[in-house]
Each structure stands twice: as C-alpha cells, then as structure tokens.
Here is the input.
Amino acid sequence: MARKATPARTRAVRAAKATVPARGERKRGGPRAAAASENTPYHHGALRDALLQAAERVLERDGLSGLTLRAVAREAGVSHAAPTHHFGDLTGLVSELAAIGFRQFNAAMAAAGASATAPLEKAMARARTYVAYAQAHPGMYGLMFRTERLDMSRPSLCEAANASFAGLAGAIGASRQEQISEQALSLGQAADIARAWSLVHGFTMLLLDGRLTDILHRLPKGTDAGMLLDAMLKRAIGQVPVA
Amino acid sequence: MARKATPARTRAVRAAKATVPARGERKRGGPRAAAASENTPYHHGALRDALLQAAERVLERDGLSGLTLRAVAREAGVSHAAPTHHFGDLTGLVSELAAIGFRQFNAAMAAAGASATAPLEKAMARARTYVAYAQAHPGMYGLMFRTERLDMSRPSLCEAANASFAGLAGAIGASRQEQISEQALSLGQAADIARAWSLVHGFTMLLLDGRLTDILHRLPKGTDAGMLLDAMLKRAIGQVPVA
DNA sequence: ATGTTATCTTTACACCGTAAAGATATGGTT
DNA sequence: AACCATATCTTTACGGTGTAAAGATAACAT
Here is the structure.
C-alpha cells in the first residue's frame, strides 16, 4: 500500500530536466559509460536483470499475490508496461524468476552434497539443505512448485528444473550404488525417487503452509522444525533410500 | 470465455415481465412455494448453497485462477455483488468452499478406513483414497492446501480441517497401537504423523503439478500413478507407520 | 548523416475485488 | 389491514490488474 500512485512521475521528472536521478547508479559497465552520467537515461541499460531482482524483492516482501507486473515496474522505477517488453507477459516474468530460483536451489544442493561423506550423513545433509532453502526463500519455493503460472516450455526454466531433478536422481542412484539412466527407469528406482522427493517436498509444503505448526506446538518445548525433520527421516533413512 | 458480458440481463428480463426463468426451478422446499411460480424471483431462496455449488463448478472447470467472485456470480445467474453479501469477500467464499472440500475428503477417508481390516491393507487403502480424492477433485485439493487465501479462523473451515488431521493422527495412533493425545505429542508420534502426511501429500502435490509425468513416462509402458504410489509405499510401509 | 531497430512510455480497454447506495421481498408488530 | 425493520439482491462507482497498440527516445549500423 506504500507508494500509492506515481503515474508519469519519472517522465515528468525527466522532462523537467531534474538532476536527481530516479534510477541512477546502475552497473552499465559495458559501452556508453560517460554519456549522461547522473540524470536518469531513457534506456536503462540492464533493465531485464533489474526487473528480475525487483521481482524477487517484491515476492519475498509482499508474497505471491503481490507479485504483479505493475508492482515490479514500480519497484524498478520504470513504467508499468516496461516488463512486458522483456518477458512478454506475467507468466514469462514468473517463469524466468522461477528459473533463477531453481539455479539458486541447485547451487545450494550441490554444496550440501559435497559436504558430507558418509552416505547416510549425505542424505540427511541434502534433506536439511532442501528444507532450509525453502525456509530462507519461501516466496521463491512457492513460485517454483505451487503455481500453475509457469511456462515449462521456456528453455531457461526447463533446463534449471531438469537439472534439479537430475541432482535428485543422481543422489538416489548413488545411494542405490547404480547408475540411473536418462531414458528408462525401473519401478524400484522410480519408487525410490518418488519416495525421497515426496517426503521432503511434502514436509516442506506442509511447513510453509503452516500445516505443521499445530504438531510443533504440541511437542516438548524447544522442538523446532529441523528436529522434527530429523526425527521423521531417521526412521525412513537406512530402511530405504531418501537421497 | 463463454458467456461474455450479460450486465443487467436478469434485471432487464425481470423488468420486461418476461416469462422465461433465468434461474427458476430451485428447491425452495420451505416457505412460499406458490408465490411467483415460474418467473425468476428477486430473492433466490437458497443462493448461498447455489453459489458454493457454482464455485465448485467454476473451480474444477477454469482452475483456481478462474475462481473469481464475478465468475461465480455469473455461473449462478446473479449480479456480481451478490456473493459478497453471503461471504464477505473472496477469501470468505474460498474458505467456505475449502471447508466443503475437507468434509468431502473426510467422508472419503472414513469410508476407506472402514473397508480394509489388516493394518497394512488399511494403510494402503487410506493412501490410495487420499491420492484418488485429489485426482478426482484437483481444484478442491489445491484450494485446501496450496492457497494462502484461506481464513483458518472461520469455524467451518477450522473444524473440517481439524477433523481431517484428527483422522490422520488417529490412524497413526492405531498403527502404533497407542492412543494419541489431543494435547501433547512425543517426538516419535509426531515424526510418524509428519512422515505419513509428508509422503502422501508430497506425492499428491508433485502429481497434480505434473512433476511426476517425466518419471511416469520413463517407466515400463502401462505404469500409472497408482502403481508408482503402491511401489513407493510398499517399502516405506511395514518399516514405519504410514497411516 | 540517415534510416533501422531496440527500448521504454503513454494511452486504452476489459476484468477483477470491494464499497456504497438503491430496489425488492420477507416477516413481525401494531 | 397497514406499516416498518430487516434480509436479500442489484446498480453504480472506484482503484488495481494484465495486456495490446501506438508514440517517443536512444543506440546502432550503414
């Protein structure tokens, strides 16, 4: 509700030759460094990235329902129709943002997989990292999984999401001590993958949706979600692969 | 996109003393049966229930993003502001609809729990029923779990959702052969509940989101989601309680 | 220097949620 | 029987949203 209505603000400022930059000091490291140094230029220079960063801020601040094309444009200080030129429509922007989320997520998971050595410890570390990412970036995680407004045909999103799945499948394959093919899966392999993914994804969704707060509230004082996750996995792990 | 724009249609029809009923033949079993028999009355008589039924139709037909107050009003054949009077706002209507979903779901789960006798069979039957409900009513299930537009302080929704959780907890308690208290939980109990719920909820969400289609596609021809669910649970069940 | 193209703004429109006021039927009171 | 309070439904209105189309401006190639 802050920043009520500023239509034609940047334009008016520019027309009046004002010196205060509405959106100055961008990186713009490439060409044209000393063209119009301080006063806000008509061309942003790196608006696409700036819009994505603004979108992530809006998402984590105002939630998924607050993530609108116009809100992102306001956050970036450009006209409300500027995002359309770079992303086509809202689905496009959301999908590109989700792709960024998957890349962040994949990086975190790769780091977690490299940390521990024992297979059981490695599986636990991966699960903890999975949930921790979702807790640190709830808006992003929701965007990546709970929205139907994703265009999976977009190469960047498809690629990042597939990489995420490949990481999971690879971890399951390692715990089964076998190579998992890109094409065919045995029912046992698929069951192991689905079990591990369902467990951790389901726990994450229930946690983010607040469906576990009652349970956590009834537990001995001081028990948090991480401890519940550990307890949940400890009896599932070892019996069957969990990642 | 059908039914483009019919503003003031019902009103105009009524004003012109037309005989064709725009929303005739309601139940209206209570009072005033022979007042104005055929021509659409100003007072609907059971608009609240009719709006909820219309909302469910819109939800399953057009998805969650198509579930708007105005679309529901159109579906029910009343003015766009009529739902507001009965539900306050969109959150109110969505919450009441979710409560209906939970009651449907609880009825299905209760029937599944009564069918099988052996504890292992009962657990599998419950899991299959859980997923089957979500597949039969994907819009409803999404509404019940994946939206932040629910007002859990509404008594009807809170009660129905709590009943659903109580059913789960009771089943876990039975499989552990112990009574589960309403107030306190041991970590082991909570872990069993969280594990069962996460497994089946996670599987359901991934399935509805299309995240498992790749896996299913790589499986031997003819393998469907139900078989994958069975295989996933078969190695989790018995080792640990799954419900 | 000039024309092409990419980038960004302005304008416009339909749909949405919501509030407020008007219209109409119901029921109770006198 | 007349009357009024109330509940129900419609109309009107306003700001916000996505999106399309046209205009303005800067960068670039020639």
